[in-house]
């Protein structure tokens, strides 16, 4: 466990992503100060490949660092990618350190039903499509598509917690 105050900057106001970062960071560090920032991803509203989704996470982390200069600056991004004509949800995270080091990793990928994939291919964004599909508001801040399409076994916070844990693990590895 770390004993010094660790400044954490979160490059989103999304509740599911913020909870994932706080839950994991608080597991590995004792004295933490969190700040949230609304920063751009500088990619499409609906990233359409692993590469674009990864770049969005990295951009959010870098833009958060520029806004905060915190010790750890997180960016998390959800997107979609197609493999063999099937559309999967893909998720990426990045953390930017004060010295300019960027660590990134991906997490869960899961198949989207064809009716959802067709909406995205037509130019819509997953969050609003899921709200319409579930007849709920702001599903991206709670269950998310992953919660809906895993029968509630994995929600969006839990999915992003795995990514944040990978990022923290890589940070601790390179720090030692």
CATH architecture: Alpha-Beta Complex
Q: Spans of 5+ residues with little confidence (pLDDT < 50)? A: none
Number of helices: 6
Biggest sheet architecture: 6 strands, mixed
Judged by helices, strands and strand pairing, the structural class is alpha/beta
Please tell me how large the radius of gyration is.
Answer: 16 Å
Helix percentage range = 40-55%
Question: Number of domains in the coordinates?
Answer: 1
Give helix and strand order, one letter per element, not per position: EHEHEEEEHHHH
CATH class: Alpha Beta
Q: What is the beta-strand fraction?
A: 15-25%
The overall pLDDT average reads: 95
From the N-terminal CA to the C-terminal CA, the straight-line distance is 13 Å
Say what the CATH topology is: Maf protein
The overall strand count is 6
**Any idea what the shape is?**
globular
């Amino acid at each position: 466990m770390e004993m010094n105050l660790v400044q954490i900057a979160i490059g989103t106001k999304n509740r599911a992503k913020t909870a994932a970062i706080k839950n994991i960071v608080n597991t590995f560090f004792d004295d933490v100060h969190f700040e949230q920032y609304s920063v751009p991803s500088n990619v499409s509203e609906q990233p359409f490949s692993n590469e674009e989704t990864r770049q969005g996470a990295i951009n959010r982390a870098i833009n958060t660092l520029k806004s905060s200069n915190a010790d750890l600056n997180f960016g998390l991004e959800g997107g979609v990618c197609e493999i063999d004509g099937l559309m999967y949800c893909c998720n990426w995270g990045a953390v930017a350190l004060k010295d300019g080091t960027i660590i990134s990793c991906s997490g869960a990928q899961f198949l989207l039903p064809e009716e959802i994939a067709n909406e995205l291919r037509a130019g819509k964004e997953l969050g609003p499509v899921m709200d319409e599909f579930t007849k709920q508001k702001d599903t991206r801040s709670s269950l998310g598509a992953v919660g809906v399409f895993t029968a509630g076994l994995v929600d969006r916070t839990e999915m992003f917690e795995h990514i944040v844990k990978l990022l923290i693990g890589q940070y601790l590895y390179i720090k030692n």
